[in-house]
Amino acid sequence: MKKNLIILACIAVLFSGCAAEFNRVYKTTDYNYKYEYAKQLFAVGKYSQAETLLRELVTMKKGTDEAEECLYMLGMAEYMGSDYESAAATFKKYSSTYPRGIYAEHAAYYVGQSLYQSAPEPRLDQTPTIGAINAYQQFLDLFPDSKLRPQAQRHLFELQDKLIMKELLSAQLYYNLGGYFGNCTNGGSNLEACIITAQNALKTYPFSSLRESFSLLIMKSKFELAEQSVEERRLERYRDAEDECYGFINEFPDSRERRLAEKFIQKCKRYTKEG
């Protein structure tokens, strides 16, 4: 017990000393010394303290030989400290200020990387995801031979999958709402909205791994739309649903939902044969 208290006391003294040293450096007007100290903090992983000093130094070092390195290091300190929004803004500033700078390649990559880290789950607003995709694409265009290209491409595909999942969740929500008309203020129906959302997703992402899921929603929505139709539109919609079922089977012959498609076809034929 006594030994532990001694260790804790030593740690407290050590941290107190470190804090005192940082405060002394923070208040100094010797910016060269402050810059070297900030670099030491960054090197040992004290990113929050390094960031505090670098924010001031970015302004004070403007126009000097250290200005470029200072701005890049601030971005990295923010990134390593998980302040991704600030990091993205700093790396963008670096890229616009030093488009051919020493760290231009890495700064361009870390704009996308910062936005990638802050990209939300598919159910939420995907503005940061779109920003990350654009940033990675710009990086790949500017530095096609970069060693970071494989990582950027992998993350780019992950982000695109997130956007696709967002569309799938939207289409699924419309389908689940079905005959509820409370949100159909501009006419139409939830099933029609599901069809349009899924079809647009397939046009935008024709090679998506979720293609079958979108196609299934379209097929089910068209069939249910026919089932709910008024008499004068029923035949037309059953024909459309039947065609969709055949198209689904042709594209996904081994699908687990093939039996459902065949069941829908038989039901559709009761009306299409008569028509």
Assign the structural class, choosing from mainly alpha, mainly beta, alpha/beta, alpha+beta, or little secondary structure.
mainly alpha
**If helices are DSSP runs of H or I spanning 4 or more residues, what is the number of helices?**
12
| Overall pLDDT level | 90
* Main pleated-sheet profile: none
Q: First CA to last CA: what distance?
A: 91 Å
Helix content: over 70%
Order of helical and strand elements: HHHHHHHHHHHH
Give your account of this protein's structure.
With 275 residues, the protein is an all-alpha fold. Helices cover 76% and strands 0% of the residues. It has twelve helices and no strands. The chain has helices at residues 2-27, 31-43, 47-60, 67-80, 84-97, 104-117, 127-142, 149-177, 190-204, 211-227, 231-251, 258-272. The longest helix has 29 residues, at 149-177. The radius of gyration is 29 Å and the shape is elongated. The termini are far apart.
Keywords:
275 residues, mainly alpha, 0% strand
Can you give me a brief rundown of this structure?
This protein has helices at 2-27, 31-43, 47-60, 67-80, 84-97, 104-117, 127-142, 149-177, 190-204, 211-227, 231-251, 258-272.
Chain-wise SSE layout:
Elements: H1 2-27, H2 31-43, H3 47-60, H4 67-80, H5 84-97, H6 104-117, H7 127-142, H8 149-177, H9 190-204, H10 211-227, H11 231-251, H12 258-272
Helix pairs in contact: 2-3, 3-4, 4-5, 5-6, 6-7, 7-8, 8-9, 8-10, 9-10, 10-11, 11-12
